[in-house]
Amino acid sequence: MLLGDERLAVCEYARRMTADGLVVGTSGNISVRSGDLIAVTPTGVDYAELRSEDIPLVAPDGSIADGSLRPTSELPMHLSVYREVVDPDGLPVTAIVHTHSVHATAVSTLVGAVPPIHYLLAAIGPAVRVAAYATYGTVELADAMLAALEGSRGCLLANHGTITYGDSLYAAYNRARQLEWVCQLWLLARSAGSPALLPPGEIAKVAGKLRAYGQGAD
Q1: Are the beta carbons of 24 and 10 closer than 8 angstroms?
Q2: Is residue 218 part of a domain?
Q3: Considering the entire predicted model, what is its pTM?
Q4: Mind listing the pLDDT tens digit for each residue in 160-211?
Q5: 195 and 187 in contact (C-beta within 8 Å)?
Q6: Residue 136 belongs to domain with CATH number
Q7: Residue ranges of the chain with pLDDT lower than 70?
Q8: Rounded CA gap, 79 and 49, in Å?
């Protein structure tokens, strides 16, 4: 099977999105790119029932390369990221996660960018903006998303959800979870008062430290 491992990973992470409360029903979507093919969740299929063979493969122009099911209606967003976005550190963009997570979506209705209430926001970008609202599945939404993603690995979509990317599905998915956590934290703090926020310089400093974070660091 073409891209068998990638198709299986899309199935596994789609089910994980539901288990982690990042989506409800068949909302949200995931894709993984390998070479000139993109494995992406199909539209309107229960994630609990997804099998590897259900995952369509599409070419960068959106044409179906393999599979009998139609890809997600948000395919224009995924293709735009793979075609247009450059990772801030020059890493390859090989995976995208789009969620409808509750706290992040709520924040998207309140502010123009996620308030820097925690340094973890630096894992996504120096600023995590809110893309202007546009109808789902449209080129207009993809264009608004691209503007919000400039220099960042994720953004909120106004009155809609989130999108994050990475050089692996693991990285893209973790950023989606981190973004939801930061948004939940800000909403909780805001409900109790006026949260203290970190200065932009601190977010930039942490972004630099994160590049050397982990067991591979010196």
Answers
A1: no
A2: no
A3: 0.95
A4: 999 999 999 999 999 999 999 999 999 999 999 999 999 988 998 998 888 7
A5: no
A6: 3.40.225.10
A7: 212-218
A8: 25
In a domain, 215, yes or no: no
Q: Assess contact for 78 and 96: CB atoms under 8 A.
A: yes
The answer to whether residue 68 is domain-embedded is yes
Q: At which residue do the structure tokens 């691209």 appear?
A: 146
Place of tokens 């546009």: 134
Structure-token match 């959800």, residue found: 161
Decide if 131 is inside a domain.
yes
Write down the pLDDT at residue 209: 86
pLDDT for 11 = 98
Q: Structure tokens of 91?
A: 């890493």
Amino acid at residue number 217: A
H or E segment at 47? none
Q: Which two tokens stand for residue 206?
A: 């942490």
**Enzyme catalytic residues:** 74
Q: How many domains, the chain?
A: 1
